[in-house]
């Protein structure tokens, strides 16, 4: 084996349940993030995303109004 193959070699049979959970969890989160990026950056969804553009700022304004009133 070359050094690169040795570096990336995985002994699948010696992986514990925690290792498998981490692997599956990481792959699932990666796939969800890729799907989310495609959904958000899709030009068809631009109007939906733009309507929520100031949501964090609007939330802060309503909280400050409640404290003052």
What are the SSEs and their pairings?
Elements: H1 3-8, H2 17-40, H3 46-51, H4 55-68
Overview in brief:
This protein is mostly helical and 69 residues long. It is 72% helix and 0% strand.
Radius of gyration: 22 Å
Poorly predicted segments: none
Order of helices and strands: HHHH
The portion of residues assigned to helices is: over 70%
In terms of quaternary structure, the protein is: single chain
Mean pLDDT equals: 84
Strand percentage, roughly? Answer: under 5%
Q: Given the C-alpha coordinates, what overall shape results? A: elongated
- CA-to-CA gap between the ends? 71 Å
The number of helical elements comes to: 4
Largest beta-sheet characterization: none
* SS class: mainly alpha
Strand segment tally? 0
Features:
69 residues; mainly alpha
Protein described:
- By secondary structure, this protein is mainly alpha-helical.
- The protein contains 4 helices and no strands.
- The chain has helices spanning 3-8, 17-40, 46-51, 55-68.
- The mean pLDDT is 84.
